Amino acid sequence: MKWLRVLLLFPLFVVAQEPAAKAPAEGTLTIFTDRNAKDVPTQVNRLTQEVFMLKTELNVLTFRQEYGDRIKMQRVSFPANTADKEAIPAYLFTPAGLAAGKKLPALVMVHGGNHIQLTHEWFPWIAEAVRRGYAVIYPEYRGSSGHDETIYENNYGVTDVADVLAAAAYFAKKDYVDATRLGIFGHSRGGMITLSAIEKEPKRFKAAINVAGLSDLVAFMGYKTDARRQDIASQKNFGGKLPDKNLPAYIDVSPAFAIEKIETPVLLLSTTGDKTVPYQLHNKRVAEALKAYGKVFESHLYELAPGGHEFLNVDSDEGRDCMKRSFEWFAKYLTP
Question: What are the b/e assignments for 266-304, b being 16+ CB within 10 Å?
């Protein structure tokens, strides 16, 4: 049976050995939607981007109005670590009136979703982090909305992970950040990115939290609607092919298959009744693998928490407990 195991592993070896993407040739142009197009589909696409950008401005104004007296919110663009050297937008949050020379532990907060951006649901988490003495970076990785077409373009498990790792490297260089006390927190797709990040750079983060995170994209593709499956398959990394035609690409970006690389202490938070990222297919398997590999982790499962997949954002016993457990976990390893 040894020859069969070799054959089964061979496609994974091929994927892992692919050369790094080259920088675009000098003179390569970016193609944008025609702002003066007359056809309806193009007009709708352009209008969609404009609405998302307006939403960005509204979110910024709302946050500053509600928290501006005690939290400084800074909008930045940081360099991507990919060959295209793209500029990635992000938000930095620090206490208002931060004393010069003071070093803070820091958190990378990673949203989930398909074309999601900073929203009010994240405000309490950011505010609580800053109140407890953390600096926060909230990267709008490629696949997010509100920053026009280049950032809107999805590539699951590739540019999103690269952009979050680039955000961590950028943030670690800030004079008010203690790079030795860096944590990462992700929900849903953000949980997937969190796991991938601590697998790819096992020394970068001192603590990690994955809330209702996606961990196996092969399984994910098995229960999503055909429209959603086709949308993911159309992304560059998958070449328009579903798992049955390009399985190695889906395995390669699924953190469930590389748990042995994790060195960062991980907290897993989930609920039964999650209709978006079912516990049995994702965090349960991650917990079992972490245990099998002897990793440092804790896992807590809520029973039918209000809000289901979004339970962390609900003002309920479960939602409050989720926040409490999260900051207790970070305090244990980052000592704010």
Answer: bbbbbbeebebbbbebbbbbbbebbeeeebebbbeebee
